[in-house]
Amino acid sequence: xxxxxxxxxxxxxxxxxxxxxxxxxxxxxxxxxxxxxxxxxxxxxxxxxxxxxxxxxxxxxxxxxxxxxxxxxxxxxxxxxxxxxxxxxxxxxxxxxxxxxxxxxxxxxxxxxxxxxxxxxxxxxxxxxxxxxxxxxxxxxxxxxxxxxxxxxxxxxxxxxxxxxxxxxxxxxxxxxxxxxxxxxxxxxxxxxxxxxxxxxxxxxxxxxxxxxxxxxxxxxxxxxxxxxxxxxxxxxxxxxxxxxxxxxxxxxxxxxxxxxxxxxxxxxxxxxxxxxxxxxxxxxxxxxxxxxxxxxxxxxxxxxxxxxxxxxxxxxxxxxxxxxxxxxxxxxxxxxxxxxxxxxxxxxxxxxxxxx
Length: 357
Prior knowledge:
The protein is an alpha/beta fold. It is built from 13 helices and ten strands.
């Protein structure tokens, strides 16, 4: 009987302590205070052009001999998802695995970037960034890891110029076929939503449009997040991660107008990449020209880039060395949190190590 009483006292004290933490953390969340700064891994800007920058992450020791790794992000989301928080950072784990890690940051578009086309990135910025990685690292080739539309840019770049120094290409949640995507892509695809109605005075698609588009795909998602937050409000680590990730989810950047029109007209409405009819710089883009080893990473519960939209890449490229990694996660959990730590990152690291050249 005494033992039961002691356990009850311990449980009661724990709940009292948690109640205090819930109150404290709840005030911090509501006030928007107490946030941990994101993107904390030390880095240096080693190349830039216009608003685009190439970062090289610092290491406490020399990187292991091998091919440097370039991370490529989408045009509409912030790059710090790769380096969210200490202990929850793809960059941090790749450095720990011995890689020489670079990242290309596209910057925040304004009126000056409204005329940027897919060619601007695929044939201009990205090839120049690859050359800068080679010059900075002294390596002959570069491994590339792209996320979402960043993976698509990398894939198109290699297809346009197979001579680029890309040794291995890994795509995470990268859309290739847009036919299987739901709202709001289906509205654009069927002509019920006109892109010109979404462009603002800068000539770009504003970030608020993009955020609302993601909300329409999963309207109950934020309610689930809040419910999970309430349940874990006593946990400082959980709250810190929630605040950082929630900030990233709501921190979109404008989509350059010209590139947005190309994506809408050629990829969303006509699915030209899959059909082999996509043209850039008046040249047909053929994924059969992609001969580099390819890793296709798909999130099985992704409601932004469903597996059916990412899977065709494995069959459309000309490479004989293609692997597919299916991860039991959603679009964001693929790159951050427990699943990324246990499945995504180890899978990518293993694949890169099996492809040293």
